[in-house]
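A favour between colleagues. Tell me how you read the following sequence-structure pair.

===
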Amino acid sequence: MLEIIPVIDLMNSVAVSGKSGNRSEYTPLKTIYASSANPVEIASSLKLAGAKEMYIADLNFIERDGSHNINEINDVNRILPVIADIGVDNLNTFEFALKYAYKIIVATETLESIDELRKIFEKYPKERIIVSVDVKNNELLAKHMDIDLEGFKEVLHEIDPNEIILLDISSVGTEGGFNKELLQIFSDFKDKIILGGGITPDVDIDFPDYSRLVYALVLGGVIDQYVIDYARRHESIPAVDDFHFSDEDFEDFIRFAKTQEFDYRSSAKTLYDQMKKELVKDGLADAMKPELDAMEKALEMDKERFIRIKKDEIIPFIEEELATRYWFQEAGVIVRLRYDEQLKTALTKPLI
């Protein structure tokens, strides 16, 4: 059975994402598994989703930039067993990492020498060690060793690790999947291989495109404040499988939202406002006033009317927050899956 190991990179205490190993361009991770880039929140959600272990790379430690994310790794390790990559270069670094995670990555990118790799395997059980064969542009990535892929294969035959990661750093974050050529080169170890580089989707499915209003309601805290207000007035809600935000409830939300201050302009209206500013700068606003006035009138929309138009977009977010508040995080995930059109589309596709 295929096992998927979730992976996150940590930088400055938060999960980050990037492409092709360009770490200077990494940004906070956006994921369906959490509302923030907090690694503990992500790990908790992944555990609920069935994850058995988790790979974490501490980019600060790997770069030796004077900071680290060891405490975050330790916190996650209490939730899910962590496979930690802190840029092990020698036996001492490996021993330090063992205090905070249940398996440690020894990667060719950072390894000081083959002798240090031998020392690690001589002193510690193979169950605690994963060797990562790092490749970039189809060549072994080994900053401190003069060795190629074929040479390192011989070393692997000698030390006989239990698990080997094949990681093509060039493909990280590109959704290109694993490197099939690299897998062929290391076919001798096929029963030990963990493929890195992510999963290529069998079917491409469009992500939902939410309106600016929904973002304003969620990020502006309007839905959060409404849920707090709702909870004050309702002692309980039905079990999550039976709970649905009714038309009457939505009318209640509209009454609440009308009392809140937030930017409810549509995306078109914000573009219009920006265009108008540019026309003023160019001295063209007066000459185009009739056209601009007509366009502005067409784009103006009452707050209540706009909320009603976007009812189907808004309700899932309210339901999820309410379910989480009354029945905790697992209930929120259940509601999220209820409205997950990507999942529904994927389930209609033939298995391969």
About this structure: The first helix runs from residue 39 to 48. The first strand starts at residue 7 and ends at 11.
